[in-house]
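Many introductory courses stop at the sequence. We go one step further.
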Amino acid sequence: MQTKTGFASINGAQIYYELAGTGQPLVLLHAGVADGRLWDDQFAPFAKHYRTIRYDLRGFGRSPMPSGRFSHHDDLAGLLDFLQVDRAIVVGLSFGGKVAIDFALAYPQRVTALVLGAPSIGGAVPTERILQFWEDEETAVENGDINAAVELNLRLWVDGLQRQPDEVNSVVRQKVGEMQREIFLMDVPEDAAEMRLEPVAYGRLAEITAPTLVLVGDLDLPEKVEEAAWLAQQMPHAQHTVMPGVAHMLNMEKPAQFNQLVLDFLQGKSGTQRGTE
């Protein structure tokens, strides 16, 4: 299988992308603690069935953060235009799920199906736990303690609340740590500003009519588990599945199960009713 790589000039940014496979387009949106490498265990398997695209959002991986105002959902639209893709299946994890939801609201005609792994939701009120995490992370970064900032992210987003670091796959932990460290070290111009979708997604989820699979790990933060179930109830054509024994990085911890759930859903093998499988 041949992979095409390159940079697309999108809305003032140079967006790194990879493309492989043929057939219906499928795009992968990574989490905020990662870059396109998050999908290493999905890219080739999905490319056997779909024209699969993964890319580094601006400010992540090999896509630098330029000056100016932007929105990630408009960047995705620009990338699809660059690749001459009219409509796509959109798969997003965590922050990538937020981008996927925003894209589905801003460009509903361009989404054939959604897969949302423990997604964030634009406009949702953060919990006290998340607010404290952001404060602790910012303090560590301001103090120049990148190691501490990385570890805060690993403890919350990889380990979860119910496990110690030595109970988690060390390869997953190391890989997420490397990607998160690079994000902290990336240069961000002072005038770079992400513009949020207006109106925000939180009160508009019923507008999303594309078939949707919502996935979450049972060891993720309790608020993420609850939010995933609530999200699926708000969307008219959504299914909800809880993956056992994994936390937030569910596609990295159990890639074979994640891949099968996604492929079964996209190929119409997992039913059409809401509920936990």
